[in-house]
Amino acid sequence: MSRFLPVLAPAPRPMAAPVNERVAPRAVRISITDRCDLACVYCRPNRKDGYLPAAQRLTAERWETLVRGLAQRGIRRVRITGGEPLVHPHVVDIVRAIARVPGIDDVALTTNGTRLTALAPALRDAGLRRVNVSIDSLDPSRFFRLTRGGRLSDVLDGVDAARRAGFRDLKTNTVALAGENEHELETIVRWAWSLDATPRLLELMSVGHGARLSSCTMPYPAMRARLAALLGDDDPAPEPDRGPARYVRARDGVHRVGFITGASESFCAGCDRLRVSSDGRLRPCLATNDAVDVTRELRLGDLAGIGARLDEAWAEKPDGELWRGCREDAARDVDMRSTGG
Ligand code: SAM
Description:
Layout: E1 4-6, E2 27-31, H1 60-72, E3 77-81, H2 91-99, E4 106-111, H3 116-126, E5 130-134, H4 140-146, H5 152-164, E6 171-176, H6 185-194, E7 198-203, H7 220-226, E8 237-238, E9 246-249, E10 256-260, E11 273-276, E12 281-283, E13 290-293, H8 295-300, H9 303-315, H10 320-325, H11 336-339
Parallel strand pairs: 2-3, 2-11, 3-4, 4-5, 5-6, 6-7, 7-10
Antiparallel strand pairs: 1-13, 8-9, 9-10, 11-12, 12-13
S-adenosylmethionine binds at residues 36, 42-43, 81-82, 84, 110-112, 134, 173, 175, 202, 204-205, 207, 210, 336, 340-341.
């Protein structure tokens, strides 16, 4: 029986989805909860959209089993995301459980930062090594509006707390939105640099709710133009084993800026990433709701079975055709909170 199950409304599939034989899976993004304390305008339709029942969420023990199974098949890097991972009541236990899995050499987390003040030291002690903080504006009222109620000071305090807790290599994520925060990009970059963080600017992708705001997408050349005073003409270069961002050195020779250009490009050829939703479904691609259910193997503690499910999901990993199809709305029904962005 096929374990390929649609999670939400099924997205249109390409006629033939070529098997991704170019790279082996090395990285996994786990969305430990679809809950979030913010409701960013491009991510959620409102603050009242539904969540999965808490009982369906994997426990820390199940996440550890899952990562053990994946590590036996070559996964080396884990990024914890959501929803908002720091609203999960057991996020510290999950980090601790994953960090001790043999073979995992990088445990990172993407957060909106609102709860870092309370949690940064415990996360660090539990084995978390790297943190990315999403922040789309340094203007309190714009931040409030874009996040539908978020308080900017919570995030700024959270970033300070992360630094005090010893997190180095901090990165910030900013979705560049035409007509919204575009004139803030230089300020955000300078602010991140002042904290020894690496700022990254993201094109808004036509995935999930983002598809409804695609007219706000600010293409990479427009972002570069906004940063012309800070960056030279260098082409951006990827950071090995660190995902799709590409980095440009600043004119000062010290700093850099990352760009994630998911709207204008496809990263499919080099993609070594798998995603897992909070209810235990392996998802081979951000642009589709297709998923392989691995909950039975988790219940049984069947590590070889988890590896087999990974192989199944990986065999269905689509190539760039599906991603290009996002522009024709193929990914409109994908929920970023399940895939973890
Ligand atoms: N709550 C956490 C956070 O805010 O970072 C983790 C989950 S969030 C889905 C992960 C990242 O995806 C954030 O940086 C967010 O800005 C980004 N994101 C969400 N929807 C997006 C879209 N349509 N296009 C580009 N980035 C998006």
